[in-house]
Amino acid sequence: MMEPQKMAKPAIILTRLITAIVIGSNLTAAWAAPAEQTYRLYCVQCHGILGNGEGINQTSGGLAVSPLGHTNAEQMSKLTDEEIRQAITGGGDAVAKSELMPAWGKTLTAEEIDVLVLYLRKMCQCKSNR
Ligand code: HEC
Questions:
Q1: Is residue 20 part of a domain?
Q2: In the chain, how many domains are there?
Q3: CB-based pocket (< 6 A), ligand 1
Q4: How many angstroms is it from 5 CA to the middle of ligand 1?
Q5: Worst-scoring range by mean pLDDT, 23-32, 65-74, 87-96, 117-126?
Q6: Is pTM beyond 0.85 here?
Q7: Angle between helices 32-42 and 110-124 (to 10 degrees)
Q8: Are 33 and 27 contacting, i.e. CB atoms less than 8 angstroms apart?
């Protein structure tokens, strides 16, 4: 009989592989790697390493308003690219949403924010439906 501990390793490898495929697929464009790096530096603590809204700040019970799941096509398609850009630049305040979403306009350049918008669209595999 296999011990549970011996089972863990292949399971972890498989999880990482799936994660890599989910996040890494279609990320061959030149902007993709820098955008992913920016996302990992500034966004994952709330939005999650998978972009599903399950970052550590959320899962530890710290946030009163749930971060948007960037992989959630239904929710993401309700936003235009311009609204996403405004939310990232000016934070929740700028788009009449929770100020738990910080403003990044002083940390990131306009170009970095533009590629983040592209990155979020890759994550949701969606466009605005408006
Ligand atoms: C400190 C936690 C936190 C961090 C860090 C954070 N966010 Fe958010 N974000 C939130 C929360 C909470 C919401 C949901 C706000 C609401 O629905 O009222 C949100 C919402 C959003 C939205 C949707 C806005 C809308 O109009 O519905 C976008 C887009 C977004 N975040 C992008 C980002 C990006 C890109 C980064 C990294 C540069 C980032 N966020 C970093 C907490 C965070």
A1: no
A2: 1
A3: 42-43, 45-47, 57, 63, 65, 67-68, 79, 83-84, 87-88, 92, 95, 97-98, 100-102, 104, 116
A4: 37
A5: 23-32
A6: no
A7: 90
A8: yes
